[in-house]
Amino acid sequence: MRRPVRRSIFRAGLGLVAATVLAAGSGAAVPALAADGDPLPVRITGENHVDLSLQGDNGDPAEPQITLRLAAPGSDEPGDDGEVPVAHQGRYRITIDAGGLAGVAQAKLPCTTSGATATCEGDRIHAGEKADVLGGIRLDIPAGGSPRRFGEITVTGEGEGVAFAPLHIQVVVSDSRIVSHELPAPGVGVGGTWGAPLGLRNAGRAPADGVVLRFRGTRGLNFPDSYGNCVYRHTTDGPLKDQGTDAICAVSGVYEAGAAYEVTEPLKVKTAAFALNDLFTYSFAPADAGQAKALPKTGGYTPGTGAPLTLRKLAGTPSGVYSSKGTAWLPQDNSYDILITGDSARGAVGDKVTVNVGFRNLGPAWVRGLEPPDDDPMLVYVALPPGTTATKIPEDCWAGRLDDGSDGYGCWAHTPVLEDANLTFPFELRIDKVVENAKGRIRMQPFDYPSEPDQDNNSAWIVLNAADDDGSTQGTTGGPSADPSPSAPGGPSADPSPGASGGDTSGSTGATGGDGPASSGGTSGGGLASTGAGGAVLLGGGALLALGLGAVLVVVVRRRSA
Questions:
Q1: Residue 497 burial by Cβ neighbours in a 10 Å radius (0-12, 13-18, 19+)
Q2: Global pTM value
Q3: Are strands 112-114 and 66-72 parallel, antiparallel or unpaired?
Q4: On the CB side of 419, how many CA atoms lie within 13 Å of its CA?
Q5: Fewer CB atoms inside 10 Å of the end CB: C or N, the chain?
Q6: Which residues pair with 254 in a beta bridge?
Q7: CB atoms within 10 A of CB 560
Q8: pLDDT tens, 78-118?
Q9: What residues are paired with 173 via a beta bridge?
Q10: Region labeled Disordered — which residues (predicted)?
Q11: Distance CA 118, CA 425 (A)
């Protein structure tokens, strides 16, 4: 198993960050403003759709169907002290308005309630998507049934220095129970089109008068057909995790209890040239098809223009599993290529020089996650050349002990990583002793990257005062032996002294704009983004803010949208 090993290494690295921050006495808080001074973007998350059954099969009455959380940029992986970093410090208020459920369902709300409204207040927001739980919402159908079938809960937020994205929760009441068929392995290659065999079964005791189909594809997927009874929303900005296409379809008809149905023709799902392990999901739910058309009037949806999507009844129930939704990852035959670049400089004793460590994705695929549904960040290890001390380090890097036991730095790149990502980590070094051809190795964290067949360019060198014909900074060319002597010319120190506690983290980070190729360690344009547990958020104009533990901060520029 690859993931448990990698996670243990990753958490150890995070512990180094927490220790460094605490040693500096700065706490784990990070600024609540984006790089351009805009408020910190925070999403209110939770289930956006709940189906309630008049048959009473609505789960444990003591358990909520909805759990509300706050999702801020950054990673919610705790350090060795068990603490998740703080992304914002300052008062905020979350308002839960369940007034739209009148006559539909009864809601038990968290926090401080007044009638159909509740407010939750706090003074800090942690990084990531898991740490800040506002509370749960329990929904039940009142005695005697529900005279209405549809309702909505709206959750909004306000606070100085924070921009909250609201959450709209649609509630549907039915006397049917609709489940969706599992999906087979797509078996489609990059650039190809897969016919997804969507299906449902009415597992309730009463027929369903119409159903609602919801399906979604992440940014590497699109849907060539446009159905007239569907509405579509194409998201091309904001967090990469949220980018892609969402669709809601109202399908009329009577769906008998115990019967199974499938789409008349498979739903076409096309993969982009950069797609790799993109996520496709779908689900059916009972609803009156006429009323269902009112559901997507908000949220940026536009109607389809073609013939309607239809379903047909099957003679029997197909083999396989039915559940609340179907899921597939596609394609799986694409690959990416991470290029690590180094840099070189010259100087005398006491001089301060800046060297740039580069991280670039040469494509053709983006890195949606290292392994579905994994969204762990990629790590870059940096060892300094002997005779140097770091006086400024990038805000997205931290000092500590590397996996080989030596001192150095870790720098992270959150996933998803765009297919043209280009990131620079600038280090300011003070030369304490002139060592001819002094080298420090840069490398990706050792890990089985299953979709990167060429890993020969995953390492590079920082070279100071290079000899005339031995100044290569790329790969293993000109590098030292596996276990060099610290004083041997041409090799890095086995125990470099990176200046963990003395390094200033005020140096600039990220990549500036530009479409040209990246030079070794340069700052040419590109894009790197993070979602999921990494919690990155793309801001207006394409800039990305990815906050990590302590003062970890990455700001990059995205060259193009999907």
A1: middle
A2: 0.70
A3: unpaired
A4: 17
A5: N
A6: 209
A7: 12
A8: 765 678 888 899 999 999 999 999 989 999 999 999 999 99
A9: 52
A10: 468-527
A11: 44
